[in-house]
Amino acid sequence: MAARYAYECPECHSTIELSTTQAGQQLTCAGCSAVITAPKLGVIKGLPAVGGQSATPARQGRAPKSGSPLKSWLFTGGLLLAVLGGIAGSAAQYRANEFRVDIDFDAAVAKEMDLIDSHSPAEIYGIAVESTKDSFALEYSEVPYRTSNIKSGIIQWVAWTCFGVAGVGLLMLLGSFFVKNQ
């Protein structure tokens, strides 16, 4: 059963009973036969109830719990850190790649071969012995086709730091699901 509300006719000031289903409709006043427009739903719900009914029905069950402030801060802060850290890290990584330098592999090999050709075998053996004194074995490594310079190295460090901040944000976000409401 819909609640009924008391509305005063603007013409004759007699009481008209309205329900929420009549909001915005054309009505005829029983006292003066004037055609009036019923107020909007928000206005009707603010009117006094008719016949001992409560204007706002009582809620059944428990009131909803308000969230813990710690949970809210963890969730909001974690989400913010994760999104901003990820965006900043991606942008910095992209920028670091712009500073990398392409290596002409053939020119680099030719330069090393010229350096080797300029020394005698005894000098090359001496250099090899000196360079391997501190290491246990000679390691083979290919010359990369791209190399980082100092600028790209610093920007890459910033990128990985931002990714670390994003990781902390994700941990905070995940932790917010384990905090109990108070």
What descriptors fit this protein?
transmembrane; 5 helices; mainly alpha; 2 domains; 6 strands
Amino-to-carboxy terminus distance: 37 Å
Task: State the low-pLDDT regions, or none.
Answer: 54-61
The largest sheet is: 2 strands, antiparallel
Gross morphology: rod-shaped
Succession of helices and strands: EEEEHHEHHEH
Q: Can you count the beta strands? A: 6
Radius of gyration: 39 Å
The strand line-up of the biggest sheet is: 1-2
Q: Mean pLDDT, rounded to whole units?
A: 79
Strand content: 5-15%
> How many helices does DSSP assign?
5
Would you kindly provide a written description of the structure presented here, covering whatever features stand out?
The chain has 182 residues and is mainly alpha-helical. It folds into two domains: 4-45, no CATH class; 67-113 and 144-182. It is built from five helices and six strands, in the order E-E-E-E-H-H-E-H-H-E-H. It has helices at 41-45, 69-98, 105-117, 121-131, 150-176; strands at residues 4-8, 15-19, 26-28, 35-37, 101-102, 146-147. The strands form three sheets. The chain has a two-stranded antiparallel ribbon. It has a two-stranded antiparallel ribbon with strand order 3-4. A two-stranded antiparallel ribbon has the order 5-6. A hairpin with a 6-residue loop joins strand 3 (26-28) and strand 4. Helix 2 (69-98) runs antiparallel to helix 5. The longest helix has 30 residues, at 69-98. It is rod-shaped, with a radius of gyration of 39 Å. The chain starts with a strand and ends in a 6-residue tail after the last helix. Keywords: Membrane, Transmembrane, Transmembrane helix. The chain crosses the membrane at residues 72-92, 154-179.
